[in-house]
TrEMBL record:
Transmembrane segments: none
One CC-aspect GO term: mediator complex
Cross-referenced SUPFAM superfamilies: Mediator hinge subcomplex-like (SSF140718)
Gene Ontology terms for molecular function: transcription coregulator activity
PANTHER family given in the database record: MEDIATOR OF RNA POLYMERASE II TRANSCRIPTION SUBUNIT 21, RNA POLYMERASE II HOLOENZYME COMPONENT SRB7
Domain of life, per lineage: Eukaryota
Function: Component of the Mediator complex, a coactivator involved in the regulated transcription of nearly all RNA polymerase II-dependent genes. Mediator functions as a bridge to convey information from gene-specific regulatory proteins to the basal RNA polymerase II transcription machinery. Mediator is recruited to promoters by direct interactions with regulatory proteins and serves as a scaffold for the assembly of a functional preinitiation complex with RNA polymerase II and the general transcription factors.
Family membership noted in the UniProt record: Belongs to the Mediator complex subunit 21 family.
Protein name as annotated: Mediator of RNA polymerase II transcription subunit 21
Compartments it resides in: Nucleus
């Protein structure tokens, strides 16, 4: 099992992936905005969506909230600045 700092770094990395993926889904399912001066009369056929954008929004909202809670728990489990090395060792032994 990894130490708490490694777990925290993994959780932060996971959260950044969640944000990047949610932005990608927003870009994929957003409706295009047309500007009259840039209209090129292109006819794009709408693509079939296998899963609605609301389902993706709910999924990523859940993932982001869950990962944020995990990050908070990991931060709270880190020793504070006033902890002596002996107290930190005792804390690590008691959590195992």
């Amino acid at each position: 099992m990894a130490d708490r700092l490694t777990q925290l770094q993994d959780a932060v990395n996971q959260q950044s992936e969640n944000f990047c993926n949610s932005i990608g889904v927003l870009q994929q399912f957003s409706k295009p905005t047309f500007f009259p001066e840039f209209d090129k009369s292109s006819s794009k056929s709408p693509t079939a969506q296998t899963q609605s954008s609301e389902d993706f929004a709910q999924l990523f909202a859940t993932l982001i909230a869950r990962t944020a809670k995990d990050i908070d728990v990991l931060i709270d489990s880190l020793p504070n600045e006033e902890s002596t090395p002996e107290l930190q060792v005792f804390s690590n032994c008691s959590s195992i």
